[in-house]
Amino acid sequence: MANSHIFRIGAGLVAAAAACWLATAPAMGEERETGGRTILDEAEPDAVLNALERAGYEAEITKAKDGDPKIESTDDDSPFAVNFYDCNDKHEQCAYVQITQGWNLKKGLDLAKIDSWNADNVWGQAYRDDEKDPWLALVINFKGGVTPEYVDDMVEWWSVIVDDFEKHIGWDKD
Amino acid sequence: MRNAALMLAAAVLIAGAGAALAEDDDQYAEFNKPGAIDSKVAPDLITGSRIGMIVAALQKAGFEVEVNKTDSGVPRIDSTNKEQPFSVHFYGCTDGEDCGYIQFLNGWNMKNGVTAVEIEQWNTDQVWGQAFRDEEKDPWVGVTVNLRGGVTQANFDDTVEWWARVLQDFQDHIGWDKE
Fold first, then answer.
1. What is the sign of the dihedral through the CA atoms of B94, A152, A135 and A171?
2. Which of A21, B59, B99, B150 could be B93's S-S partner, Cβ–Cβ 3.0 to 4.6 Å?
């Protein structure tokens, strides 16, 4: 149960997370303090990893085939990846990310199950791969600047929809 | 008094093209209900309680919209352009306040609907835009946007641009020809 320790963050934890952000701010040039709040101007791998770790996920920063950053879970029970998009020529300053995870089912999943997920759920885009295995994806847009609270909330949504999706597809860790 | 204040706000809006955000929001005072969460967010950031800022971003992107209210008292933004219908739904509200996220949504009434395979193709290939079918097999696409904690106007503008792109690309994908 990789996600059992993920919960809606209480006010105290938010404060602690905010303090953590301030403490680590100097190392991240992409953050700016303005008008009394912190703004993240780009999908910076360290910032995304920090948000994931604050929610209890274990992951590491790696590199995609095209040289762009990538984050991969190091927890076999929760094997998600974060893909970075719209990065510059130096593979930095990426505009948005997509958290994605696939589930290896013995017989794959019926298309109707994918269709009903996408029709009934506001968050989380479902699709299948060539082997009819189900995948779930969530986009987080950083372009133009967002608050750390927004990123934390998106990570929280990810944990919520992964739980819901596993129930939807009848995942029993086969 | 209330009407006078609204008219004054409207006059200010008309007088100054670069009207301050506060006046912008007054036009939608009925819908701007920052609760315990949103009232703590810096005033230049967009939250689900700042309808005027959301409408302004949509208008800046060329969309024509109006603000309506659902039966449950939550705001809903609707396109007033029949050539490009869509709506913006508000979610995660507490008693009509502090709506945490919104969904841009549109459906297309097709003669024969679309196949599940066409929808799945979109969802497999596209990062932006969640596609599905209704009971009549008509295609829909949505983009959900988190506003909890606040996003900058620049970020929201970019997301609105994505919505405009998704609308166009999805119409191409389903072969919509204004049938």
1. negative
2. B99
Q: What is the largest CA-CA distance in chain A?
A: 54
What is the Rg, in whole angstroms, of the alpha carbon atoms belonging to chain A?
A: 17
pLDDT by 10s per residue, chain B, length 179:
445 555 444 444 444 434 445 445 567 877 777 888 888 888 899 999 899 999 999 999 999 999 999 988 889 999 999 999 999 999 999 887 889 999 999 999 999 999 999 999 999 999 999 999 999 999 999 999 999 989 999 999 999 999 999 999 999 999 998 65
pLDDT of residue B95: 81
Q: Chain B residue with minimal CA distance to A11?
A: B37
- Residues of chain B in contact with residue A139, where contact means CB-CB under 8 angstroms, are 127-128
Q: Are the CB atoms for A44 and A35 separated by under 8 Å?
A: no
Q: Report residue A28: phi and psi, to 5°.
A: -115, 100
Distance, in Å, from the CA atom of B54 to the CA atom of A28, rounded to the nearest integer, reads: 30
Contacts of A43 in chain B (CB under 8 A): none
Residues B162-170: contacts with CB under 8 Å, at least 24 apart: B162/A141, B162/B128, B163/B86, B163/B104, B164/B61, B164/B62, B164/B63, B165/B128, B166/B104, B166/B126, B166/B128, B166/B129, B166/B141, B167/B84, B167/B86, B167/B106, B167/B141, B169/B126, B169/B129, B170/B122, B170/B129, B170/B131, B170/B139, B170/B141
Phi-psi region of B129 (alpha: psi -120 to 50; beta: other; left: phi over 0): left
Task: State which residue of chain B sits closest to A37, comparing Cα positions.
Answer: B42
Residues 6+ apart with CB under 8 A from A46: A27, A28, A61
Q: Is the dihedral of CA B89, A166, A155, B39 positive or negative?
A: positive
* Tens of pLDDT, residues A15-57: 444 444 444 433 344 567 666 678 999 999 999 999 999 999 9
Cβ neighbours of A157 in B, within 8 Å: 146
